[in-house]
Structures are given as structure tokens and as C-alpha cells.
Amino acid sequence: xxxxTVNNTEVEFSDERNLLEVxxxxxxxxxxxxxxxxxxxxxxxxxxxxxxxxRGIMASCSIKPEPGMVVQTDxxxxxxxxxxxxxxxxxxxxxxCPTCQRSANCTLQDLARKLGVKDVRYxxxxxxxxxxxxxxSLVRDPNKCVLCGDCVRVCSEVQxxxxxxxxxRGSNARVVPxxxxxxxxxxxxxxxxxxxxxxxxxxxAKSDADKVWEAIYDPEKVVVVQVAPAVRVGLGExxxxxxxxxxxxxxxxxxxxxxxxxxxxxxxxxxxTIFEEATEFIERLTTGxxxxxxxxxxxxxxxxxETFYPEMLPNVSTTRSPQAIFGAVARKTLPAKLGVKPENLxxxxxxxxxxxxxxxQLPKFKRDGRPEVDYVLTTVELASMIESMxxxxxxxxxxxxxxxxxxxxxxxxxxxATGGVMEAALRFAVEKVSGEPLEEIDFKETRGLAPRKExxxxxxxxxxxxxxxxxxxxxxxxxxxxxxxxxxxxxIEVMACPGGCVAGGGQPITSEDGFRSKRAAGLYDTDKERxxxxxxxxxxxxxxxxxxxxxxxxxxxxxxxLHTVYNN
Length: 568
Ligand code: HC1
Ligand code: SF4
Known about the structure:
CATH class of the largest domain: Alpha Beta
Number of domains: 3
Bound molecules: 2 iron/2 sulfur/5 carbonyl/2 water inorganic cluster, iron/sulfur cluster
Largest sheet: 5 strands, mixed
Cofactor: [2Fe-2S] cluster; [4Fe-4S] cluster
Structural class: alpha/beta
Subcellular location: Membrane
Protein name: 4Fe-4S dicluster domain-containing protein
Strand content: 5-15%
Mean pLDDT: 95
Domain 4Fe-4S His(Cys)3-ligated-type: 77-116
Keywords: 2Fe-2S, 4Fe-4S, Iron, Iron-sulfur, Membrane, Metal-binding, NAD, Repeat, Translocase
Low-confidence stretches: none
Number of helices: 18
């Protein structure tokens, strides 16, 4: 067993990547800006300083732990240096904290408080650079950037997009989109993973909350809302619930108190997506269509494919995402059902995702010049709206989603975790292809956080090869292998965010260990509790087809309203 000494206490270690991880494992939360366990080491923020006996003061993120090391994490000199570093950052930082989206959830604010910074001894060097509001999903405020480079690394290492980089050096250094363009002009796919790792408010989701309040307060309008699968296992974290606890039923009560007229479930539309997408897959499989078929519900993945792999677009399912299918169903069926004039129906989404804001405003999802989904809120925006009303979520009585667009199967619920769309699609497709009732509905091969999950299933004497990837760098690797003839699959699920939507760019920011698995577990537990788990058993989806979409998946009406086209 290997040991070293931290603050006079012996600490065991094994395969930790660096001294910082050993120290954190020993229960000492050394501050950092630029260290992120899932990213490469940058070593620029100089906050994780430690004093190593015989070697002096160094950044612990860049030091390999060695047996016998004697380390102090807090000396007078270190404390001073940390304080100076934080004060220098504050001097160059826009300090309008009360109006910042990240107020109370900001590493810089937190550090200033912990280190007891009472005033900033340096001249204010903040430059008042313009905000970049060009993106439909995100707002960049360079005045709040601390140059930690976390966003640059997540975008290139985890997403392999490379939309952000450093420009200039020294006191003029900045993080900018490629060619110093606006964010919306480049290759950014709107996934929001940069906003998730940003320690301050330099990149945040663009908020639609004010527009939604305005609609709610307008007596002419009937405001309906759909809530995505992953929101229900993320929202509770902002109200003291256990990570991953499904708070859907209390959330419905809160949303009724806020003034939403009808609260529906995106999981209904996810079931309907499976009707279309699995039907499309079976059609491709049996008629020699383009395979592998990729799922299409993640708008960041779709933009990634459009940007980097246009030649693969014929392989992407043409089925719209659940958000967009809900939009179509709402516009087509709700005015008559609710007795509201079409122009007075306002359709809102709550999504764990920033790319869904981008998706909703795409011209192809407009009808008569208006988006089918008017506004998209993130989980965090919904949490803030609930807080702003003084509602205590934990104290509310539970309520059910409104019918009929609030009914869903377990298959629709697990969409929010990586592998969930594939599992739901298999529940449908395997039963249809084999022509026999499916007894074993769990496809555990699709679950978990492995970067790529693969399986070969025997169905009606045929082999079905499936793969699931999450994180766009993993998607890129798989697509490259397919193009080179090194990988063969029939059906592939891609989600842009590592872990799937449960860890989307609009979810509460956390550094808790295992938060992705815990949120996913919340969805799988809900699936298990449902009486109906196969999407094809959703009676209300059947009824919706009968009433408005040509009676069956793949009908002409379904193709016109529930499918889409790509830019190639
Ligand atoms: Fe997702 Fe989806 S699962 S994309 O991850 O297919 O955002 O939660 O709403 O549309 O249903 C997100 C989640 C979400 C869609 C569904
Ligand atoms: Fe990169 Fe995603 Fe951020 Fe765009 S939203 S800059 S693609 S990490």
C-alpha cells in the first residue's frame, strides 16, 4: 500500500491521476478553476497550490503522487497567494453578482467568500467587452471569463467540436469562438456543456423566462407546457431532494400554481417518436434502406452531423424529436380539445437542454410563420421561476400530468438517459419484427456510462447489431470507424451530452460524484414502477394517430407532420 502525508495525516493512494485527487479523496476540498477530472490538465489557475517538503510550492493538479511525500495544503504563503490570485481575477471580472444567472452558484464568488476576501486591492481592469447574444441557446459574457479554459477543453475534448479557443496573450487574452466570430456563426452545436463546466457566469443559457411569464399573465392566452423526461430527475436538486429523485408530481403542482393552464409530458411524445422511428427502422431493415440508422432526437447531434458529416445524413432517422412531435400534436389537436383559438395557444417546453432552444426556433419547425413550440425553458430556469414565486417544492401535494398528452409508458421515460431511446425502440421493434409478444423488456446492454455500448440481438433468425454512444467525441469516433468500414451496425443511438439528457446543458450544475448515474437511476426506477412499459402499449398515442395522424405510424399525415429534413 502506498501512502503520503497531507497536513500531518497519513493518506493512502493508488491510481489517482495527480496529487490534487489524492488530497480531495482525503477530504480536503482544495479550490480550483481550471481543474476538471474529466478534462486534460491545464494548470493555469494556480489555486490548487500545495507546499511539498523539499520541493516547495507547486500546483497539485500537475504533480504525480509519490510515496512518502509530505504535503501541506494551507500555509501562510499559500493562503496569501490564493487570495492574491482571487483578487486579481475579481479585478478583471464584471462584479454585478446579484444580477448574474450564476449568483449563489459561482466558484469565484464561493472562493472569495471562503478565503475571506473583503476588498480588492488591485485596480479594476475589466474591459466592458460586448456580450455575445447571437446564439439562440447561450449567452457569452467575456467580462466574466476567468480564462480557466474549461469550456475550450470540454468543447474540443469531450465534444470534438472545437468551437471555442483562446485568442491573444497576456492581459489581452480572451476565450472566443473560432475566428473571433459570434457563437452562432461557427460550429457550435448548442449542447451547453461549456456552460456546465464554466465556473462563473461567462457562458449561460439564454433565458426565455420573461416571455413565458408574459404569456402566463396574458388573459387571452392558454399556456400549455411539456416537460422532458430528464427534467423530473434534475429539478429536485435545487430544492434539497436527493440527487436523481423523480419530483414530477410535485413539479406539476408547482407549475399549476405558476399559472400554466395544462401540464403535459414530453414522454407521451417520446412514445410517439418510437412509433415513428422504430417503424422507420423496420422499413429500412426490411426493404434494403440506408443502414445504420442513427437516432435523431438530440438536436446537438443532428447539427454535429449536418456540420461535420453531411454525407451521413441519409442515415439519420427523419423522425422528429419528441419535443418537435409534441409541438405538432399540440398545434393539431389542442385548439379543438381545449376550445381555444389557435393563435391564443402558447406552447412551452421545459428541457434539460440548451440545444432544444435552437431546435425550437428552426424555420423547418415553424407553421404559418410561428414556431410550433413557442418557448423553451431549461430545468434551471424552471427552478428559478418556482423559487421566484416562493414555492417550496418539497412541501407541495403531488398531482398528475394532464390527459391525454400527459400519459406515457416507461419506455418514454427512459429517453432521458443514454441508451434509453435505443431500449425503448427495441421494445417496439423486436416485438414487431418477431411477431411475438416481448416478455423480457429490459435491454440492459444499452444502460450505463461506458462511452460506447454494443450488442448483437437475435430477432426472428436475424442478427440486429446496435450501438449507443454519448459525448460527441465518442460519436465522431464511431462515425469514422463506420466510414472506414471498421464498424458495422444496424441501429445507433447518439446523444451529445455524456450521460444523455440527464446531464444536459440546462440541468442544475453539480460536482457530485456519480450524479449522471443517480439521475439515470431515477428514470429507470420510474420505468420499473410503470404498469405500461412498452411504447406500443400507449393507448393514448394510438388514439392520437386515429384522430389526427392517418391512423398509423408511417402514414402520409404522419410523414408530413412528424418527420423532418436535414440541411445537406
Ligand atoms: Fe431529451 Fe428527448 S430525451 S432529447 O434527451 O428525445 O432535452 O430529457 O426531451 O425531444 O423525450 C432532452 C430529455 C428530451 C426530446 C425526449
Ligand atoms: Fe462547444 Fe457545446 Fe459550448 Fe457550443 S455549446 S461552444 S459546441 S461546448
